[in-house]
Design a protein that fits this description.
Layout lengths: L1 H10 L4 H7 L4 H8 L7 H11 L3 H6 L9 H11 L4 H11 L3 H20 L4 E5 H12 L9 E5 L1 H10 L1
Antiparallel strand pairs: 1-2
Amino acid sequence: MNKRIRKLRRTLDLTQSVFAEKIGMKQNSIALVEGGKRNISDYAIRVICREFNVNEEWLRTGNGEMFNPTPDSELDALAEKYSLSYNARVMIEKFINLKPNQQDAVIHYIKEVASALDDSDTGSLSVDVTAAEAAYEKSLGIAPKKESTALNITNDTEKENEIEAG
């Protein structure tokens, strides 16, 4: 493991001093570890992995990649696995980067739309966009707007009936 710690430190382009400071150790301790004269504690291994996004299996055994995948590469892998379009990938990325209360506001809005669609037997529904916007803005700490906007959605069958009757 001593060689992998040295390789990691050099890959990060850090001196023993800076590396040691970042993980709460002394420079001479890192020198002893890298020289194979001292073993590193499990706690120090966990700190190294957390601080530098290092793959613990690689650090301990040499198996796998040196670093854990970044969130972007995980999202890219997800997009590839499920053949997501660019727009779908962006939507997921934006959603996961929201704060939990903002995610809840988006989910609440989607549930309102789904409920309105389920309750609609006439083929026409009205979704109160303003209420959804207000809930989202409240989650962001933004003062709500005073205007009211309703979104009317009519299905194709109703439009066809209107055209035939017209």
